[in-house]
Design brief:
Number of strands of chain B: 11
Number of helices of chain B: 0
Order of helices and strands of chain A: EEEEEEEEEEE
Oligomer: heterodimer
Number of domains of chain B: 1
CATH class of chain B: Mainly Beta
Helix content of chain B: under 10%
Order of helices and strands of chain B: EEEEEEEEEEE
Strand content of chain A: over 45%
CATH superfamily of chain B: Immunoglobulins
Number of domains of chain A: 1
Largest interface: A-B, 26 and 27 residues
Structural class of chain A: mainly beta
Largest sheet of chain A: 7 strands, mixed
CATH architecture of chain B: Sandwich
Largest sheet of chain B: 6 strands, mixed
Structural class of chain B: mainly beta
Distance between the termini of chain A: 36 Å
Shape of chain A: globular
CATH architecture of chain A: Sandwich
Chain lengths: 115, 111
């Protein structure tokens, strides 16, 4: 069964360091999402791509976060510099259709701990 | 911004009991999804409901979408320890083209 691949599964870093997360969506899924989930809360959308274009990045803290999907397939989310409040699970999801009509398929997530 | 409120926030029951969890909003959604998430893992899709009043069954789980497409419920019959997890609802809005998640209900089923 096709899956969304994410790496690394776990990342521990010190504040002010740079961090990067990678995601490979299900083959053929044009829509890719990055969500952040703080413990005890639901996922919060950071950025949505349609192919290689950003559809929504209104909740992405652009002073320190960046995301790209250069060839419209895999994607990278970067944080520089990391802050203590960035500790969370970073989830990547893909969808065959935009989320208003289609279901999201999530990866296992990348757990970030900032010390 | 559309908000989805889920209740209860936490629920702890014994194996074999029935339970219902709720997902409510003041906004209309074009579709609504339910996901189950285990600790340290990503959410896994359980079901999508689209039509107001729609009822879907998945083994011991029954999902209902409100007539006005603003709310939904998940009923589990004869809960089992394997049902333990975080149950998340997510609503999609056609105009904005994205999903909003609730904060979930954490269910613990004790053997």
């Amino acid at each position: 069964e096709a899956e969304v691949a994410q790496s690394p599964r776990y990342k521990i870093t010190e504040k002010s360091q740079a961090v990067a997360f990678w995601c490979d969506p299900i083959s053929g899924h044009a829509t890719l999402y990055w969500y952040r989930q703080i413990l005890g809360q639901g996922p919060e959308l950071l950025v949505q791509f349609q192919d290689e274009s950003v559809v929504d990045d209104s909740q992405l803290p652009k002073d320190r976060f960046s995301a790209e999907r250069l060839k419209g397939v895999d994607s990278t989310l970067k944080i520089q510099p990391a802050e203590l409040g960035d500790s969370a699970m970073y989830l990547c999801a893909s969808s065959l259709l935009p989320a208003n009509t289609g279901e999201l398929f999530f990866g296992e997530g990348s757990r970030l701990t900032v010390l | 911004t559309q908000l989805l409120e889920q209740s209860p926030q936490f629920l702890s029951i014994q194996e074999g009991e029935n339970l219902t969890v709720y997902c409510n909003s003041s906004s209309v959604f074009s579709s609504l999804q339910w996901y189950r998430q285990e600790p340290g893992e990503g959410p896994v899709l359980l079901v999508t409901v689209v039509t107001g009043g729609e009822v879907k069954k998945l083994k011991r789980l029954t999902f209902q979408f409100g007539d006005a497409r603003k709310d939904s419920s998940l009923h589990i019959t004869a809960a089992q320890p394997g049902d333990t997890g975080l149950y998340l609802c997510a609503g999609g809005v056609s105009v904005e083209g994205k999903s909003t998640f609730g904060d979930g209900t954490t269910l613990t089923v004790k053997p």
